[in-house]
Amino acid sequence: MSRLPTDPDTSDSANIDPGEPVKELAGFQEEMLVGLVARVRRSIYRRTATAHVTSFWWSTPVLILSEFWTVLVGQFSSKGPRKDT
């Protein structure tokens, strides 16, 4: 069984010394491209819009058929006009 603390307040993460940064990795840091975030956002919006259109395309015929079925059942199950005399 693991002996790791389950309570985050009792962890020793504040006492850990990360040490010196690795000098070789400092050269790999690149500036973020200006349009990268906008391109990613547009891609996400495109995929979301496609998912909504596909969902609408699948659910609309089912909704229309259920409405037609309700009207059809309502026409045949209703009795003729009442004549109160």
**Percent of residues in helices:** 40-55%
Biggest sheet layout: none
Determine the number of helices (DSSP H or I, runs of at least 4 residues).
2
The Cα radius of gyration reads: 32 Å
Average pLDDT over all residues = 79
The percent range for strand residues is under 5%
Structural class determined from secondary elements: mainly alpha
Order of helices and strands: HH
Uncertain parts? none
- The number of strands is 0
Termini Cα gap: 85 Å
How does the overall form come out from the CA principal axes? elongated
Explain what you see.
With 85 residues, the protein is mainly alpha-helical. The chain has a domain at 45-73. It is built from two helices and no strands. The longest helix has 42 residues, at 36-77. The N and C termini lie far apart (85 Å).
Give a summary of the structure in a few sentences:
This protein is an all-alpha fold and 85 residues long.
Identify the notable features of this structure and list them briefly:
mainly alpha; 85 residues; 2 helices
Chain-wise SSE layout:
Elements: H1 23-26, H2 36-77
